[in-house]
Amino acid sequence: MDGTYWESRRTFFAPGIVGSRLQAALNGFGGADCTGTTPGANGCQYFNPFVNAGPGNGTYNIANPFYVPGAENSEELVAWLQVPNGTREYEQQVVLDLVLSGETGIEFSGGPLAFAVGAQVRDNEFSSRPLNDESNLDINPCFVEGDTSCVGTTTEGVGPFIFLGGSRPTRLNQSVYAFFAELNAPITDAIELAAAIRFEDYGDPIGSTINPKGSVRWQVTDWVTLRGSVGTTFRGPLASNVSPNFVTALEGFTAAGGNYKSKDIYGNPTNLSPETALTYNIGAIFNAPIGGADVTFSVDYWSIDLEDRITITPANAIASRVGNFQTSGNEPVNCSDPLANLITFSGNQCIQGVTTGIDISRVRADFVNGPDVKISGLDFALNASFPIGDNATFSFGGNAVYNLDYKFDEFVVQGETVLQPYDAVGLGNYFRDPNTVPEWRANAFANLRFGPVAARYSLVHIDGVTDDRCVNADGSFRDPCFVTADGQGTNFGVESGSYTQHDIAVTYDLVLAGADLQLQAAIENFTDAEPAEAQLPLSFNPFIGNAIGRNYRVGIRARF
Would the pTM count as exceeding 0.85? Predict the structure, then answer.
């Protein structure tokens, strides 16, 4: 029997401008000490939003030629306008495990039938408190600080901040009880079977599940092994998934011209079910000495069928639908769309023919049981090692995955289809699940060790992808794909291109003053490969490569 306990306390926040305070300051009634009804008097201050308010950029020591001394905003006014917005969170978990294992007394030609039975209890506790009253939606649920007239309407919970959302006090507890049993049967020296079953109970309203699994391993010859398994899995919602609260994230919505807007992600305390999956795999391992080297190669086919997947509604797809699938942000939106109620617009209103994509202020997303997903692929692995002389070893190898399928069923929100069925393989999937999925990902290495010195070359290759936003429903490509704010068409980033990174590292091991030391030096991305381009705010795809370029690293590691 064993147990684990851990806890985490964290405070995080970001500065945010309170909208009603900004409006008051623009009218001359800004500042914590403002009294009276005369703008700019009795402690009231004007906020100057114009370029003449700043002397320049201190970081780069660049002067502002339009600066007018005396036109700057006071530090006290800025601090009053820009308030820390965040939460204080506490989380803890207690895990107790009881396991009994041994042999059953039943003998096979390959050995005894072994078993294991056990139970587990997991108790999770989570609490979140707004950092201050401005962040607390129980106190400030509406656009205007101190106003509560929006309670019961569609704008309740937008909060007083212009850009960021607030939060409500939350305290959640979740207890999970599990029981399991396993059997291992070495039928012969060549064939081994294993079976397992697990029961988990998440309580009401999530429920419980029973999940079996079976596997087989067959040593066909001394150098060929076949293996396979099949089973079901279960994942219950986290406590935060079923919270009545929401958190705010940022997303560059396509319908808003790629501008970042608020995305409010709501928990689902009433009807969020567990997700389940049927998984299976079959593979082969080849192990044989070749030319004095010990070589191992394996290939595996794997498949995962997910049902009732726990996810959030696709906010970008919702915004694009209501925004008439525009990319510039300058075109009118469809205020009569059935999903327009999930979007908050500037001024808290949507006027047909007037409100445009750039007027999207925030979009609501909810945790739901999303569409079913079919995932499959092939995994490859190669490792080889052989000695060179008496004191040197050379080894090489690699791993690769080839994605065959990543197919999603249609996504329906409030009875409306917001995403048609699609296969994510080979596409960027920048604003939909599961993000970028190249067909191939591979890495390889070659390592030479001579006594205390080791030199290692490594390579990472990631296939390029196509921007899914440029693919029409019939599979054709839109040309040009994107329309910029000035009305120009562009295909920049439609095809991201592949990425290959080369690294080299050298280490030297020594013992000094009783400590085991390792001196390290490396050149990462020594060809200075650039990341794959993409029509994103940073102009590259962060899932394919990185923007750091060639870099050098030195280090030392000590063990006592």
Answer: no
